[in-house]
Amino acid sequence: MDLHKSKTILLSSILLAYLSLNACNEQQTPPPDTSTSSPSPITEVEISPTPTQTQTTPKQKNVKVFFPKQPQSNQDFRYVEPVVRSTTSRAVATFAIEQLIIGPTKAETKIGFTEALQLKGQSNCGKDFTLSIAAETATLKFCRAIPSPGVGYDARATSAIESTLKQFSTIKSVVILNKDGNCFGDLSGENLCLKTGSKGERLSTKSKIAINGIGPITVGMTLEEASQAGQVKLLPEDASSRRDYGCLISQPEGIENLWFMAIEGKIARVDTRSPQISTISGIKVGDKLEKVMSVYGNKIELEPHQYVPGGKYATFVPTDSSDKNYRLIFETNPEGKVTTFRAGKLPEVAWVEGCV
Question: Left (φ > 0), alpha (ψ -120 to 50) or beta: where does 190 sit?
């Protein structure tokens, strides 16, 4: 009886173990998952993406931004040097002008770089500027005011903008407009940059003299650049005008009583005795000293003429720091009439004898 009971218990244990084993196997093999959940990562297969699936990270591009740099830009308004900025934007020209408006960094300022321009006031287009490029010409129109303290400021801003935009192969020429749609820095008042087919102002007796040049020709240009800008040949006055220190007097072909002084091949000053040529403010040869004083006021400094008894030098001294190295000098006779005047940079503009 005891033996039979033991066998029964043993069989029951074996049966129980068998049933437990089957239960474990059923738990380890779940039914197929028919839910919509994401498949397990191990089931993903790598495939080549279609062009529309490809996502590329924009590449960094280096762009040059040109700023005036002292002390060179104090002597030559057109002098600028590049700094490098990086961007992932495809609108690289727009980015470059944005950086030009922001100005140089503190580190760049410490080594002489200065701002090219400042914008002030409200925008009339919702942003600082608009830029369009067509037929290799970039048209940059500012939508905020550009305060201009002097011709030096205008010249530096123009040079910085043109150099920055012309680094791009699609841009050969640049038109710069103020918020009113007028040509920026155009001293002629004729909006020459907007005239269809115009190559710019041609040098003539109608061109106005400013402290940094006359019409399209400015101090700092090489003789070749000046000839191209003025669309006129510049002819050496005579062989004796050449000196060991590289001073040369040239005359524009077909225009009398107008001379350019070049030092080491670059324009330093302009002189005239023509009664047809005037300053931007309207002063010309034959006007009385009283008129000069009334136009320029306390910015005129008077001193006796070195070679004409009773004559005077009336020197216009600009107050803006950007023009501090430039002068406009009128010479008068004993009767107080202007006989000649000149404009340009120091020290050349102050040389009484010219190239001697």
Answer: alpha
Q: In the chain, what is the straight-line distance between the N-terminal and C-terminal CA atoms, in Å?
A: 147
Q: Give yes or no for a contact between 234 and 227, defined as CB atoms under 8 angstroms apart.
A: yes
Contact 153, 78 (CB under 8 A): no
Asked whether 65 and 83 are in contact (CB, 8 A), the reply is yes
CB of 320 within 8 A of CB of 326?
Answer: no
Q: Report how far Cα 212 is from the mean position of its chain's Cα atoms.
A: 18
Give the long-range contacts of residues 50-56, CB within 8 A, separation 24 or more.
none
Distance of CA 237 to CAs 197, 242, 243, 256, 351, Å?
33, 9, 13, 12, 18
pLDDT at 28: 47
- DSSP alpha helix (H) spans, the chain: 2-28, 72-75, 92-102, 106-110, 151-165, 223-230, 289-296
| Coil, strand or helix at 130 | strand
State residue 326 phi and psi, 5-degree precision: -125, 155
Instruction: Chunk the chain into consecutive blocks of 10 residues (it has 356) and report each block's average pLDDT, rounded to whole numbers.
Output: 49 50 46 42 34 62 96 87 96 96 97 95 95 93 90 90 96 93 81 68 92 92 91 80 72 96 94 96 96 95 96 94 90 98 96 88
In what helix (H) or strand (E) does residue 62 lie, and over which residues does it extend? strand 61-68
pLDDT value of position 336? 97
CB-neighbour burial class of residue 165 (10 A; exposed 0-12, middle 13-18, buried 19+) = buried
d(CA 142, CA 99): 14
Encoded tokens for 316? 């216009």
At 297 the three-state DSSP class reads helix
CA 20 to chain centre: 86
State the Cα–Cα distance between residues 137 and 173, nearest whole angstrom: 5
